[in-house]
Amino acid sequence: MKRKITVPAILLIAAGMIAYGSCRGETAIILNKAVNICMQCIGLG
Amino acid sequence: MTILKKARRKLIQIAAFGFNNPCMGNFARGKLYKGPWKQFCSPGLNCYSCPAARLSCPIGAMQAVNGSMNFRFSFYAVGFLLAVGAVFGRAVCGWVCPFGLLQELLYGAGNLIRRVLSVVKGSTGRVPAGKESIVKETECAAGSGRLRVWKPLTYIKYIILLVFVLFLPTAATDALGMGEPAFCQYICPAGTLEAGIPLLLTHPELSRALGELFALKAGILAIVLIGSVLVERFFCKTLCPLGAIYAILNKISLLHLSCDQNKCISCGQCARVCPMDIDPVKTANAAECIRCGRCSSVCPADALHLGFSDHRES
Questions:
Q1: How many CB contacts within 8 angstroms connect chain A with chain B?
Q2: What is the ipTM of this complex?
Q3: Nearest residue in chain B measured CA to CA from A32
Q4: What is the CATH number that goes with domain B255-314?
């Protein structure tokens, strides 16, 4: 029962967050970071 | 049936690995995939600087936005993780995480070595006639003889999530207001293995930048690899911040484990085979449960059920 209430609520919030994040340009930041060699990620930066 | 279930999970893990990393040819070229798929996160831990990677690592994506000039919180990555976690919980770790698959393969290799060593030592593992029940009871009581991590170590991943993923990229900023992806920079063994080493091999000029930081990360990678050979899912249990996020959502996730106490005969087989060292009868939805389904497939009384519903109809 707890799941039937909380999960849809979380999914609704999550969908809103994804939409808001995409709209304000977060995907562009992620894409920009991910298509170039991340020196920190590989332990050189 | 158990073998079929095992094979099904392994096939899904391999398919997920392939979906995350389809550009294998990039390893030889030392290049990264630069297409539009990279703006989407993968549910599992898979470094976006890996030449084969098509999707972005959600932990890397979160830090990239948290440490960017304009934003201090990634609604996109957190929303994605909330959605995936609310539906699947830590089933992501058990079924689709590429680094989870790698750890399972390492532990499998370790098991093979242990078996070979026991054969070499002369122990065939055969139980004398009439002694089977004694051995079974002893195994149930003492666990399967596997190495287990000390329970407090399983909380390290929550500290890593708070400090290295959420706090440092936001708080430790430079003059431009940009923070470093601290988890990727100082800890992530997936980045060292999937991106650091392959890129160093194909870009000799990068080796000039080698220093203490790489030594630290290589040391952590070595500990994780050796740990994974000795302890099942060592990294998932102790260090993974992504596992920590899904662990928090495990209690309420739609995909869950349920135990019918009326059917349970308390044989302890489920606890013995659990790779995460939990007792599914006592805590079916423990934070550590990766929903691999090993417990439900060995249950002789059919008391455990993994699915979206509470328990199958009798």
A1: 155
A2: 0.94
A3: B39
A4: 3.30.70.3270
